[in-house]
Amino acid sequence: MKSDLKRKLSQVEDFENPRISLEQYITPPALASDLIFTAYMNQDLEGKVVDLGTGTGIFAIGAALTGANVKGVEVDEEALDLARDNAEKLNIAERIEFISKDVREFSGSFDTVLMNPPFSQHSEEGLKFWAKATEIAEKIYAVSPSTGREGIKSFIASSTHKVVELEEFKVDLPATYGFHTQESRETSVDLIITEAEQ
Ligand code: SAH
What we know:
The chain is of the alpha/beta class. Helix content is 32%, strand content 28%. The chain has a 7-stranded mixed β-sheet. Helix 4 links the parallel strand 2 and strand 3. The longest helix is centred in the N-terminal third of the chain and has 13 residues. It is globular and about 40 Å long. The model has no long low-confidence stretch (mean pLDDT 91). The structure holds S-adenosyl-L-homocysteine. S-adenosyl-L-homocysteine (SAH) binds next to helix 3 and strand 2.
């Protein structure tokens, strides 16, 4: 199932014109399928699931491919169109509700948040996502730059959630990233799983 997921997620089209200001970049399919498969095995895709900053839709699509019904929230209309096209292409559109909204204005009550927040070196942007996620969900599966790990961990410690798993991965970030000068650069990212404290 995991290799099947990775194969399908490799078909998700990447941003055509990534908007640097929104720090758009797609989670590499191998990492996205790891995140989705882990959530699936933990039975965390069975309830209410939301993908914050869905971008190309890769997490929402991955979750839907395991049978989940999922919402995908995104502020950029162009990205949402791409996400919808990707969902159609993978024949999974009926399981996903795409919502055009800034995550800060989004509310609800969810079992699970999936997210790869804006990768800001100054992590304020990312922290808006963490603030929303810890407010609305029981569990969070997030990709986050390893360089910001301590800041994220201290934010989580001050929230109603606690870290239950943290694993480091190496990924190639494309040159679309503002601060990159090379074609692509290997970067470390963390897969962080948190849960609400009882
Ligand atoms: N989840 C996708 C995209 C990650 S990039 C993936 O993993 O591949 C982060 C996404 O968050 C971008 O698509 C960007 O447009 C979106 N975003 C940035 N700020 C946002 C905000 N305030 N509200 C909603 N989406 C936002």
